[in-house]
Amino acid sequence: FGQAGLDGVISALGAYRLSIHSYGTYVRGTEFVQAGLDNMTKFSPPEFVVLVGTYAPLAAFVKSARKVWGTNILFCALSFVGSEQFSAALGSPEYRRNVYVTQVVEIPSLDQPGHMESRYRKALNYFEESIDLSQESECSEISNGPDLTSTEGYLVGLLTTKTIQKNQQEFIDLNLTNQTLLRLKREQFLNTVYDAGLVQLDDEYGFRLGPYGETSGCHFTGNGCGCNQGMRKVFGSMIRDDGTFQRYSPLDLDFDTCGFKRNVWKVVFGQTVSTATRFGQALYQGTLAAFEAANRESRLGDATLSLVTLDEGLNATAAGENTRKLLEQNVYAIVSSGHPETVHEIVKTADLNAMPVIGSPADLRDLRQPFSGGVIGSPAHLRDLRQPFQDREINIRASLYDEALCMISFFIDQKQLPVQRVSLLCDSVLGVEACSAMDQVLRTRGLEVSGRANFTRVPNDPIQVLQEAAEKSIDALAATLPHAGPELLILAGSQASLIAELVQSAHRRWEGCVFAAFASVGAEELSADLMRTANGKYEGPRIFVSQVVPDPSSSDNSFVQQYRRDLQALNGSITPSFASLEGYITGQFVVEVLWRLPYGSGRASFLDRIYYERNIVVKGGLRLGDFRRDLGNDSQGCNQGFRTAYLTEMRSNGSFKYVWNVDRDAQSTCGEPDNNCAGRMVRASRSDVCRLCSLGQSSNGTHCTPCPKGTFGDNSFNCVTCLEGSTSEEEGQPQCRQCDDGIINPSSLICEPCRIGWQVDEHRHGCDQTPLFWIIVLGITAPLLVLTLALLPFTCGCIPVLLDDVTLDSDSECLMVKAHGPHFVINIFERIPLRMQFSDTGDPRLDKEFQVQVMSKHKLKLLHPETGSPITDSFESSKGTARLTFPDRILRAGIFGVPFVVLQGLLLVLVISLIGADLVGLLQDPLLASCVYGGAVLMAMVLHWMSRKLKWQNPLKRRQKKYRRELARVHPYPVSCPRGAGRAVTEQQVATLFSTFSDFIRDRNMYYINANIVLPLTAARKLSFAELAGPNNVAWFVSHYWGTSFKHFVESLCLHAQTIASAAESNYWICSLSNNQWSISEELGHSWDESSFYLTLRSGLCVGTAMILDADALPLTRSWCLFEVLQTFLLTSEDAKYKGLMLCTTSGVLNLGCTSVDVSMALAGRLAELRLEDAQATDQRDKEMIENLVGSMSGGFEAVNHFVRQVFREALFKMKERFENEFGTLTQVLGKAYSAEHLLAEHATQQNPGSLLHQASKRLEATLLERSSSSLSGGHVCGIRLRKNSSTIGHIPTAMAALELMRISDADKESDVHSDAQAARAQSVAV
Fold first, then answer.
1. Which one, of 665, 667, 681, 605, lies nearest residue 636 by Cα?
2. In Å, how far are 16, 31, 804, 1168, 1183 from 955, measured between CA atoms?
3. Is 361 exposed, middle or buried (0-12, 13-18, 19+ CB in 10 A)?
4. Residue 760: in which H helix or E strand, if any?
């Protein structure tokens, strides 16, 4: 079995030009495979290993080989290995990977089985159900489910069943003891199979076996006769990691042979040549040398090439007869056959014998059967073998036009010989086409043929006949010459002896003439005829012969070296020649194409491969092609292989040397004429002779055209642009003239003077830019354009006025608006009211249209929108914009009293005039103009952006930005927290807020703070101020009126923190800072008990309520403050620890008696007549809700009024008690004569806030801080902090120190000498 498998592998590899890399064997019935593996490891690792044997030794081989070669090697076992057992023997997945097994039946365990597999499974299930597998029996070990072996057995059973069914009656009641009858039935059974041929196992899906057939009397044509094999398909499978099999379709193979038959492909080619001539013998030798080399090197694997050569004796009739004989021998193709005189008969005979010849209009697929061959590599290169295109005629050599072009390129283009008079002598049958090609080439060089004659082939013997024919032809040529004899005589023919006589006869008449012959003459034969009378040394005229093959004696060409080696291997006595090299090229071409084909390919496939590959590179590196089929479109077919023609010159010893060659582009030419004129010559039609254009003209290939103005015609007939500084003012000029009086106008090409800002350069070639150019462009035009564009937003009123401040002027008592920068509102048309629309000011009363009056370039007076009278109400804002209404924004916005629209119009007219006039020629340089004007536009945009960025950052916004950064530093990650008690702020946070914005806040109230500071600060995150700055748990609930001065609010709050609140209790819940001003409705809730006010007071964290009071006790006039007082009253009643209502003023906490007498008395008078039921609210619904709440409690408003008055009454008594005590102490102290310094050093007791001493200390600090140039707001805040932290100021003697320092201060007013020292002394006392 192993040898049979080896033969099959060798045959299969040979069909694909492959051979066995290495092989090993083992002894049947053993598992000793190491010797075979050792034999294979002597070589490099294989890529693919075929396994032929049984499962146990092959599994052992795979395991051992994996250890040596790794896991990437592919293994494939033939089916009789026993697939399931083989997989089990391999064991682990690492040995099963990349292992394949061919199968003779389809794998039965597919997930989606076919119809045949389904029937098999049903039968197997029925078999399993019909036996008791639990009982020990012969069948219990048979059924193991679907497998490959039982599948094969099932097909055998089906074949038997189908055969018996066809003769069912014959097998009923068969007597098995009757041997004679039994033998007859067996024969009948076999005859049924062989007579049927094809056995249909499945009628529906066409699963069949066969064809079967006997050797004799078989009625089946093809591969059925003499065949007892049923399956005609092999299935591929791959072992999975788990040991099961899966289908591997790339290994599937359908075939139509009856088993394996080793087939050696014998390819026979036919040749018909004149073996008696040197040319024919050489063609045969070269072709045979290529075939024998391929056979010797097994270039085609098992395929062998042979050549059947018949002698035609230069007889066309014999050539045709030879062709018929070769067709009868069923040759693969005809190669290297014929001669220019016989090749037509070869092709004609092939056509008459139904040989598909190239150029049939039928589709090639219809011409492949029957197919008798093709003509490949004919040594003739006549045009009718190329046109019309014939794809079965494969030409190897270059065309006649290629040879003619090579000759003329050498003699005329390269000017190797200065010839102008060229004559032609042509064979009247075979040389006409060559002479026609030469005439075409000469016409493209501007030359006409100088005389032309034909000659006729004559017998070679006797010599006198040749000489007479030659003289006659030369006389005929001389009769056609216009004047002198030819300088170059071209000879076209194939009879070398006659052409030799023509050369000698012409040389005797025109001694200086040079001769050139086409390759069809046969260079070696021509040389032999000329050397016959030369006595070993040729001394005649110069003779050139074109060639279609490389130099056969070259030592540099690898292909030629290979040719000489193969020729010597064929016969060491053969001399290399042009003809044998041509035959060798044809043979190598055939070998190369066959190598690219599958084993046993037909002739049609051979041709298809040539035109599919297009370019065939034969062994040795020689390229042939581009082969192209004629597809009926613009791409014409081409059956020519070589595109290179060579020119050789005969030496004195009769040999030839290569002097020139022309290699035409294989992609665009196919031996066809190039009808384009050489150089710059032109012609109207192809029949004309090309001519040169005159100076001052250009050539387009067909006509001469005068060169346009600004150019001149050079010697190569190109129109060349004049050099800079010169021009041609008329068409068709051979030269340009210098422009000395200016520059050349690009449109008129006339010399013109330079523009403004330019001057003629020193070489007079053009104009150079002067500094004046850049002054005009960059100093005038560009700035004006920038200004015009930058002014455009102002003209159209797109730029609103940004507000710095809106406040009531203390002097004029009118509402003034201060703009951030100039407002650009001008006073024209004064009788017409000037109106502006205000927006985003934060005050709804201000966000509307007003009349305005211009006070200065930064200030506007706000007037009533209807009456135009000054507004005296207090509107406070430090943000927002104002915009003139239409048409005021167009007519009354300007600068220096001139409206922007007027300035814009003047600038626009000026800029357009400057650009349109283009005085400096800037527009002549589009790139520079684009840069200048584009830069101006960009600059205007940048200026506009910068002005907006700078202008829209007013001082308040810049301060907010800085403060926001400081808050982010202290509290970098603000987040939202629940409403109520967790959003308190510290006294320090409130004081810092005031000190940061004090110069903007001044005496403004909480409405201003909320709209201009709190909302902008929290806008980005939409949080409350407490959440942004860092929230705290509440200690004191602050009740206050938003209309109270924020400065008053802060001072009162800080005094409360000094006197009552500890460090842990200095956290205040302030509605404007603790509520999220972006979600007021959510803060108020749906009812009073859902409001943040209520939640905070009732949180259990609040220790008391601090009410900020001014002299008018305005908080008690607001409904929400009333609500807070009510809750405080209730908390005081319910919780003994609740500290109640603390009344805070700027002089101290009223409850502690720490306020001044005048403030206390004023508040007392206000409270005496105040009724809480008169409190108001912004929203009437809030007022009604709070009044209802108060009315519903016991005692109602009377109880609440009594509560507030009682608190204040107790505070008054407290103040009275403290005043009397301190008054007595102060009168005693005044009697003592201590210095201020002694008093300060002796006493260190903390003073009581709100006492007389406290008030004196406060005045002292104000005086000191004023003298040290502290700010107003900083003084108050710092004073509060100093009083809170100081341990020296606060004793009763402090009042004495204060009086002493005041006395010193009065004295300082009289003398400035000691002012600085006294100020420092006062400051030190304060500290």
1. 667
2. 91, 100, 8, 45, 39
3. exposed
4. strand 758-760
Do the Cβ atoms of 425 and 676 come closer than 8 Å?
no
One DSSP character per residue, 80-120 reads GG-HHHHHHHH-SHHHHTTEEEEESS--TT-SS--HHHHHH
Provide, rounded to the nearest whole percent, the portion of the chain with pLDDT above 90: 29
∠ CA 380-383-388 to the nearest 5 degrees? 125
The dihedral of CA 385, 386, 387, 390: what is its sign?
positive
> What's the CA angle centered on 175, arms 173 and 180, to 5 degrees?
135
- Which pLDDT score is estimated for 536? 84
pLDDT for 54: 92
Per-residue model confidence as pLDDT tens digits over 201-250: 876 666 788 888 877 666 554 456 778 888 888 999 999 999 999 989 88
Is the Cβ–Cβ distance between 498 and 458 less than 8 Å? yes
Residue 633 phi/psi, 5-degree rounding, is: -110, -155
Q: How many Cβ atoms sit within 10 Å of the Cβ of residue 573?
A: 6
Q: What are the DSSP calls for 979-1029, one per residue?
A: SSGGGBEEHHHHHHHHHHSHHHHTT-BHHHHIIIIIHHHHTTTT--HHHHH
Q: What is the CA radius of gyration of the chain?
A: 61
Contact call for residues 932 and 991 (beta carbons, < 8 A): no
Is 70 exceeded by the pLDDT of residue 1229? yes
The CA distance from 404 to 444, in Å, is 12
Instruction: Please state, rounded to an integer, the average pLDDT across all residues of the chain.
Output: 79
Please tell me whether residue 407 adopts helix, strand or coil conformation.
helix
**pLDDT for 1192-1204, tens place per residue?**
777 777 777 777 7
Output the DSSP codes for 125-194. Answer: HHHHHHS-TTS-STTTTT--SS-HHHHHHHHHHHHHHHHHHHTTGGGTT--TT-HHHHHHHHHHHHHHHH
The SS3 call for residue 543 is strand
Which residues on neighbouring strands pair with residue 376, listed in sequence order? 335, 394
pTM of the model: 0.47
Q: Measure CA 708 to chain center.
A: 46
SS3 at position 309: strand
User: Which residues does residue 199 pair with via DSSP β-bridges, in sequence order?
Assistant: 209
* Residue 849 contacts residue 885 (beta carbons within 8 Å): yes
